[in-house]
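Dear colleagues,

As part of the handover before I leave the project, I'm documenting each prediction I ran so the next person doesn't have to rerun anything. This entry is a single chain, and its sequence is reproduced below.
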Amino acid sequence: MNDKLYMQLALDKAWKYQGLTYPNPAVGAVVVYDGEIVSIEAHQKAGSSHAEVLALLSAYEAISGTQIDFDRFDAHLAHEFLRQLPKDFFAQCSIYVTLEPCSHSGKTPSCAGLLAELHLKEIIIGTKDPIAEHAGGIDIVGRGILTPTIKVGILEESCKALLEPFVIWQKRAFILFKLAQTTNGRIGGGYLSSKASLTHVHQLREVCDTLLIGGNTVRVDRPTLDCRFTQGNAPDITIYSKEDNFDREIPLFAVKDREVTVTNDLSFLEKPSFVLIEGGEGMLNALKEKIDWMLIYQTPKLSTNSLTYNTTMNLQFLHTEKRDADMMIWSKNLGY
């Protein structure tokens, strides 16, 4: 029973960074020391320390009462530090991780290789790595000098659901449609979402390959679509439109280092990538057969505004969490 509880905590933490780790998967980890939770962490950004490493660093701080004095997101420094600890430091620890530890070394060292050296009591894994060339971490961990107990398949279906974007963008575009609405399903009338929700959208804009919008959004709303809430680089824009009759003087076209493409050809969605869609009813209806997931920010307001998404879709709710006053709902498109 405790295994499922701890894995759920790892899952909940990983969902906070869903999409933000692109092109890496979202992964969460929990470390339990002598029956007590001492850390709950998640991978946050590609190229930085993975979930297991961040969880072990936080566990070290909790157990030793000492704060580390280096950048915990520098994977090479983090791995070196953990390897230099006494060999039995984590001997009474169990680590729960939603995905099989990585076997390969790239921008970051192998987490499986690290865990094989640390002599933890237990390593509990949600699901094996679905990408064959990335797999093999379990075997590496099992070759540790003092072989820990290894369990695989705890809350496996939930862990696989967390990984679905990662699996999709290996072979084609993962397409996420973002929408904000009131509790009674209205979408007009200016900003609906809290600052926390707006900030999260801008974080997703920063990492996506392109932000896909409709021609009417450009003509009517004349948006900027930048990342001012995160001070990050604005996304490239793809405008889906049959006609290229846009006013190039609007802010959308004036953002530095941005590429804006106008097209009515969606073949680019066949290439591995992360595509974020922001739009209204027209875009949703035009692309709903291609949308993988929807990200809904629902604000606790009622509105008399007439604008809404007048369409039919069946969704599976995957994960919900609060963003300030809003409810954020990750949903899978099941068709209509």
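The mean pLDDT is 93. The two ends are 37 Å apart (CA to CA).

All the best with the project,
I.
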